[in-house]
Amino acid sequence: MNSINIKKKIGDNNPIIAQRFMADPYAIYYEGKVYVYGSNDSDSLIAGDNGLYPKNQYSNIKSINCISSEDMLNWTDEGEIQVADDEIKGKKGITKWASNSWAPAVCYNKVPDKVTGEMVTKFFLYFANSASSIGVLTSDSPTGPWTDPIGRPMITHDMPGCEDVLWLFDPAVLVDEDGTAYIYFGGGVPEGKEVNPKTARVAKLNPSMTGIEGEPALIDAPYLFEDSGINKINGKYYYSYCTNWSDAAEAAEGRAQIAYMVSDNPMGPFEYKGIMMKNPGQSEDFSTGAWGNNHHCILKAWDGLYMFYHTPQYEIDLGLKFDKEEGCAYRTTYVDMVSVLDDGSVVVEKMTRAGIKSSVKNYDPYKANRAFAWGEGVRTTDGNPPALVFSGKKSFVGINRARLNGKETNEFTINVIKSNSTGKMHLCAGGITENKIIASVYVPETDSAITLEALLEKSVNGISDIFIVYEANAANAELVLESWSLS
């Protein structure tokens, strides 16, 4: 899975995934949870014999990451979706025809069951096979398992209306209130057409959601480069995208900005409105090295409007050792708030390390848990679902704003898959120092799964950040944790 040891500062809620690099984020809200999907940049993250990491090669991206959250602060790793065969990782893909899996777009809709004809809820994941075609996967769940329903690309350059789309990629999808669905895609700048590339398209999806109806319509987006986005806000359709890198774009609105257009119809025509988000490299909270290709997704969930975007800032902060001086372009996903002004304009005022400052609900520790907000010295396994691997003499994950029931809470339980060292797993409230410990479990060396329990030493009532801290007796310790819970 090419997971790396997390190094995410307590109090910084960005990036939302820190154990793998995840680019091109796309988010949905379903039954009380937000699910975020993205290109797995960590498919390139394989150290060479010299111990150095290579420059990210997008051609290596064969899988898609998925994470979820019930509160926008603590995130659960739902694992990888292996779309294409990956010889480097030795994994077979879901599809037999695709060579890459870039920039997913995900939605759910009611469609007729193939056997009964009954209307059932299905999930649809649209992805780019490099820049040559767009495919679709289906599932009964937002976390899979996923299947290839048609066994071939869904959109190709051979289709009418797609011949002049240079880059057939970066899909976005909208399911309207009446169940009618639309897909937006395209990109690229033909020579001499930097101002009006005319390579963005919108098409109506068929009732099965696995094909299009009619010829795609042109979206004449000024200074378009890539990265389609679509949202319905206050009854109007907002199409958003990344501007190109030309001098003309720089003079007009700026390079690699997120621009937007508005229409009364999902198929357009769209009217240009302006810039909603700058490049992350322009943020006061990030370094100038965070400049790069800009990719985004806006999601309405609960009472908020959220902007998910990627940046190489976390790669910079980690200080990983690379063998390419010119930068390595490993991107991962951040989220900040979107504002809709009285005149209908949309703006992201800040891109930050702090991220979302308040949760939509307090975290429930009284169930099997794998979610976390912060951590250090922890990575995830290659599994479904992934487990947490605590490594070294001391490592931890932190959970933001958990609700503790005081005297009603008696026991701390951990489910260990294996451990190569003896040590202790602590539950801490309010910090990771010794005086914050409220329960400790002795962990033996073990090659088999065991469940360990300990009574709480102190009673904590109310809202508190809590931490799962592993202190090992060996420097090379590794403890694989399936889950933990309170009772």
CATH topology of the largest domain: Tachylectin-2, Chain A
> pLDDT below 50 for ≥5 consecutive residues: which ranges?
none
The assigned CATH architecture of the largest domain is: 5 Propeller
The gross shape turns out to be globular
Oligomer state of the chains in this structure: single chain
Helix content: under 10%
> What distance lies between the first and last C-alpha atoms, to the nearest angstrom?
32 Å
Mean pLDDT: 96
The CATH homologous superfamily of the largest domain is named Glycosyl hydrolase domain, family 43
Give the C-level CATH assignment of the largest domain: Mainly Beta
Q: How many separate domains?
A: 2
Biggest beta sheet summary:
6 strands, antiparallel
Number-wise, the strands total: 32
The radius of gyration over CA amounts to 23 Å
Number of helices: 2
The neighbouring-strand order within the major sheet is 1-23-26-31-28-29
Structural class: mainly beta
Q: Estimate the strand proportion.
A: 35-45%
